[in-house]
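seq:
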Amino acid sequence: MKSAKQPLLIVFVGLLFCGSAQAQIDVPTLGQGERADWLRGSWGALWLPEKTFNGNIEGVTIEPFLAQIDHLKTIDFVQIGLACPSIYSPVHSAPHAIIESLWQGDTDDNGDPLNLVVPRASAEDPFLSWIVAIDEAGLRTQVYVNSYNLLARNPDSIPDDYPELSARWEEYCDTNEEVQTFINNHPYLSVGDPDRRKYMFCYAEFILKEYSIRYGDLIDAWLFDSADNIMEACGDDAGSGELDDQRIYEAFADACHAGNPNAAVAFNNSVGTAAKPFATPSLFDDYTFGHPFGGAGDMVETESLYTRNFGICEYMSLHNGLPFATTDTRDWNDAVVGHFFPKQSTTSWNAGANPCLTDEEFVEWTSVGITNGGSIAWGTALWYVNLENPGYNLTLRDYALVQLELTDDSLSELQFPDAPNWRRADTPLPEATRDISYSHSLTDGVDFWDPAGGVIDSLTLVDAPSWLSIAETSASSGVWELTGTPTETVATGYTFDLSITSGETESSRTVKLVVNVPILPTESRTISGGAVWSDSALELTYDNNGTETDNRAISYSTESFQSSSGFKLTAYYTTGVVGNNASHNLSFGLVSDETDLSAYEGFNPFAVDTSVYSIGVNVTANQGASARGVNFTNGASTTTLDSAGTNVQFVKNASTPVVLEVWENGGWSYSINGVTEATGVIPDGFDLSQSYHVVVYGQDENGAGKSIQLLNLESRAIGLLADWNLDDISTAVVEDVSGHGFHGALINGTAVSGVNGGAVDFNGLAGGVTLPAAAFESISNEVSIAFWVFGDSSHPRADTVLSAVNTDGDRMLNIHLPWQNSLVIWDAGNSGGKNYDRISKLAEPSEYMERWNHWVFTKNATSGLMAIYLNGALWHSETGNITTISGITTDVLLGNDFEGRVYDGAIDALKLYDVALDASEVTELYEQYEGYDAWTSRYAALDGIDQDADDDQDGMSSLLEYTLMGNPVAPDQVLLPVLDASGENFVFTFNRRAASATDTAQVFQYSPNLVDWYDLDITGVPASEVTVGDAFASVESVTVTVSKSVAVDGRLFGRLKVEAQ
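struct:
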């Protein structure tokens, strides 16, 4: 110990700064087989009615079946039929406008339908009710389709009771103008093809794709039967491994992925051999169909058949659920999941009085098949499946239920014995509502359990909303309650984890929670007959006062709202009646405050009353089927913008969200139940200078519970049509985070780190992203396209960043960055052929390659100004460009063009506007981006953008300069931490960039001898010696306090270590 009188020598040597970048790991897109990963270790049950045609399927519910199996904890999915098996493949369980049109109104002598193979659009969608109910039960949905689809399996021997649809479908395809255009321009159709090949592509494009988009992620897996028969007959070959031999397979898979890119797909490509029981998969199989040996008969009729079919279960177990990973020389099918589709009865996949297997054998087959990662879908035996029989019963036969129960008991204990188990595939949580206390219970032994018989010790939340908590209701009760009061101001969706422990074992489950907001404050006005809308915090309810004729009422927001950028109206409704109904109206939308709603006497302001200025949604109306949808009224006439049913139809007997948006230039869109129904443009625009009330209109009958559960109005972001942030392409969906639903689709590309989260990298050979034409449809006089780009060193080269064409195939929007002559080219607007407006300028290499740069391309056809901005500043502009932009009806390409010139480099944060941003708005947009890559783009003179570079030779790396708010092209060591040794401790202070706290790891290190270093974390959870001040102007102060007692011989060394995250 030194004498107290001896002066303490403090040596703080320079500060030894180091900045080292960590390697970036690319995130691959979700590939073949990976989409079926959820099937590994899962089992499910088929539920399949028969004779569903001629209206029989209308009103059929799956609820009794789901109630019958509600106690089964380990079952994961239910298989249902979108199309029927065998000769009945044209019969579909979901409405479709094209298929219904083939009916042509045929009836029998009693007036009952004939040749009707879909439920009618005027009825409730039974298929939607099934998949919603399955989802709410915590199960996933596997959808069966016979690959013959609308084509007769044997056109020469059609049974008498068989709907005569196939010839009509072929005639429709051969005569419909849109379909003919599709056929004539299809790259994989040519003269000499098998006769029915074209109809397969048409089914994929016009039928299957529409179903997929409509039902979205409510469908988790697709299963196509008879693929080996019809697809081979139409020219495909599943076993070749060559893409050009599997274009029908490709078309079907692409159609399935249009609605849910993460949906798994399987095709029945026949059976294999006893040694290798699964047929070779196509390039588009995520899992195997798994047809048993023995055809459609008793699959255990002989000992040999028993051995071969049980051998499928054993084969899945032996190969860990991946039957091709080690059994052939192909690599692309390694992740294809083994899946088996046996049947319970001796006679049928969906019925039969006699079981194939004993109870013990059934349990054994299931356990062996799925324990190591395989999957089984049992064809379960229902009582009476013929819907033409008034006594049909679509619940399980007694023996079938017993076998499922015994299997569930066994799997509950033995499938995952080493950790707590979760019930089924998903744990659904009820929706929450702002300012309303939320509560939901989860129970040990029901929602989760310890297979060893122990108790669940804890249940915790991971990354849940801050207002939500969970606790056991009382000690050892086994009941855990989620509670809290939501505070969100807009409807919000959360994804987070629940984690359970039992002893030293743990298991997690990812869950989703939606928070809704209450309805706007409203006033009700009775127009006629005493009808009224009564309101509470959570619901508006219509009451017609006991009578019908013309009784009507409105409810309208107490305030009116104005927004120059447009509106987004969200409403949740419930009604027992939808469609065209002579005595029932339910409508909602926006009405200009030029109408005095307190004295309103008119009829439906969204369909009948032409004196108002309004836009609104008619869920049900009495003005004809075409009135049901979206109407616009301009004070003189009403225009139907969309009649519902193109992509999705209104739902009855369930609280259903509808989102209506309208923006500058008259652009509009609306969705039903999360599916975009239609978008378009009001020809003369929509007047956003006016103020609007939110209005709900009801008339006549109460509609078996006509009510509104949510009513929310938001101002639309200024000019923003779409925001493709490119952060996550793992599902091949390029999400539009603006909320407008203009999601794109990845053709090919690699996920990489970007300026703002993730980005997508194109290899210059094959790839790109398709952006929906609907996002560009409202663009006319003005446009802005903004994005970050990192060009590869191969530039300059002949490639394209973005390309859009009109209906004639003429260039309408085009960006080369740069072209092979180093010109950055911006084309926008075309009056025909090559008469497009263009500006261009020669660029320097640092402006287009080997570093991130932010580019914005704008056009205003009214003023004639086209401009290009680079890193927040005007880079080039020209006037006199007055050609408008119109006719973009084909999906737009990002990272490619229509001649296959693929961009070589990465793109991030693509935004589309229907206004020409001015210089200040461009600068504001650019400066919103933080992080190292955005920071380097602010220094055009910076040669080395690597994080460990030191261009200004001041001893500080670029990463350190970034962290300390430095200038990488000018020496500035004044930024280094400052030491204050006047007190009891050494106190080091410095300022850091607030954004650096999220993309760097910062550690203060000290040492008494330059050998032994001690770390004090600054980022993450700061050490107790570290204090970080509140951010001000994007700067945070950092204080590090070190005791003087750590000095040795009066010497102390310190350094700041910064590494990229």
